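(Fold this chain)
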Amino acid sequence: MLNDEAIYKKILKSIVEHQLPPGARLPEDKLSEAFGRSRTSIRKVLQRLALERIVTIEPNKGAHVNRPSEQEAQEILDSRIMLEPLLIPEVMKYWSKANSKYFRAMLKEEKEAEANEDQAALIQLTAQFHYELAALSDNSVMADFIQQLCYRSSLIIAVFGSRHSVSCDCGDHLELIELMDSQQDKKAQDWMKHHLVHIKSSLKLGVSDGQKINFQQLFANTE
C-alpha cells in the first residue's frame, strides 16, 4: 500500500503529464478507492497540493486541479524575473564548496530525469533548484515567497510549457553554479534573468478543457 508521499507524487505526476488536466475534479471518494487509502489520507495529500497552488479546494465543491490563467502565468514568471536575480548577491555571501557540491548533485538528478524523459520529475527538480538556492540568502521572507512562486510555476510549466521549458534550451543550471564558484556576481545575476526570460518565452499560452477521469484506470497498479 502506498504511503502519503507516494500518493502525492503520483497525483502530481499525473497533473504535470496532463493525465489530470487543469480544472479536473479530484473527488476524495474516487481517489480513496483508486489508492486503497482512507479519505483522511487523500485529504491530507490534496491539502498539501493546495498549499503549493497545484490544486484548489472549494467549500462544498471539493478539490480540482488549478487552472492558471494566461495572465497569472505571465505575472508569476514576471515576478520571478524581477526577484530571483536580486537575491543572487545575498546567496553569494553564503556560497561554499559544500553548497556547490550539493547543487551539482541536484543537477545530476535533473540530467537523469531529462534522459529518462520524466517531465514530472524534471519540473519538480528544477523548481527545487531555484527555491533551495533562494533559501541560502539571509532574507527568509523573500526566499519563502520565491518558493511559492516556484510551486506555482511548476503547474504553469506543466500546463503551458514543453520539454524545452525545463531543458538546457533555457540555460543549463551548471553554468550558474560555475559562475557562483568563481564569484562572478553580476554575470550570475544576468544569467538568472536570461534563464527565467527564456522559460517565460517558451510557454505556449492557452489551455484546453478538462475531461472525464477514470481514477481506477489512471492509478491502477499502485501497490
